[in-house]
Amino acid sequence: MKSEEPVVVYRPDLGSAATPQLLRQRPVHRWFWFPHSYSPELVEAILDSWNLPPGSVLLDPFVGAGTTLLVAKERGYPALGADLSPLAVLVSNVKVQPYQREKLEAALNCLQHRWEERKCRCLEYQFYATSSFWENSERLKKAFTPSEMAVLVALREEIFRLGGILKDFFMVALLGIIPDFSRAMADGGWFRWVERPEEADQIAPRLWAHATSMMGDLHFAPLGHEQDFRDWEVYLLDARKLSELKPRIFDGLITSPPYPNRHDYSRVFQIELLLLGQSEDNITRLRYNSVRSHVEAKPPEPESQAALAGYRIPSLLAQCLDQLPAKSDRRVRRMLKGYFEDMFLVLRSAHEVLRPGAKVALVVGNVRHYGVLCPVDEILVDIGRQAGFRHLASWVIRLRGNSAQQMGRYGRIPSRETVVILQAE
Question: Alphabetically, which GO biological process terms does the record hold (predicted)?
Fold first, then answer.
């Protein structure tokens, strides 16, 4: 077989690694994950196949919960991550930070002592329950009772008093227990409201337990040194603008861009973003500025549109758009067209910062809208070629069912989840 002929490989052994199922069992990785995160075993399999030399530098422009960066650290590869979500940036940076356990233990003792001093002051509950932090968000008022929100705000305030990496560590610990108490439960690409009993008195004990568990995980993690932190960093950066980084410094890119399935993570994690201090307006801007994988995202600014001069709509995408029913939601058509324009910008931008010969692994899933299959993996191969890459291989790692709504109308039609492997020319 000629070297330029791409290979399609079926890897059902990696199917479970395409979900967060295995991630939940791994120290540090399990501190916080996204519903559609892949597990570290998938990154490890990709790196094993690449056999990169020591010192190779990796990039993940959709860093999510930091899985790629943490595996890179575990293997000794410097790595940089980027994301538009402040939540993703915080979580990922916290996972790769160097920590001194005695400082974490002292900080936890300090938090517990301060909490004991203030938890019985009932007037404080009333004060925080009417604070602007809570009153300005209808979602927070619906997600928590006044007493629960009072506890959360008070704990958040004490955590912020710690400052630096200690503040970030315990803030991730606090956000990690939010699903145990919030009445906004993640459900696919949205959240649904559920009934829960009042549990204000359980929030602090659950935080202490989760923070203690996180500290225990550090016994299994490479600690590194404070001066080494710059080898693993995450920036608040648009994946379509990677050219803002230094050119030609990365030897590999492993990432999973959002799938064009209408899932909006600014809504799935809206409660966590609000508790981080993001305003409703900031979250709306994040939603509008994200890659167009959901219908509310907006086209990028004119200078990015100008970068599309070398882009042509792939024939498979044109077929998909033509097959959509005439009465389909026009926003879906616009989303699909915009998603692949954005992915062209991502790959063109990545090409500028990758060394010649650098490999790229894109974990992607095909989607269906109105019963019409959109082969995301094959379309991205075409777009990759337009952006200066050649296609090395595609690993088909699992078949996913369509959504409940699509299944009810069109029957169960599985879609591929694929690792598309490219190489910069």
Answer: DNA restriction-modification system; methylation
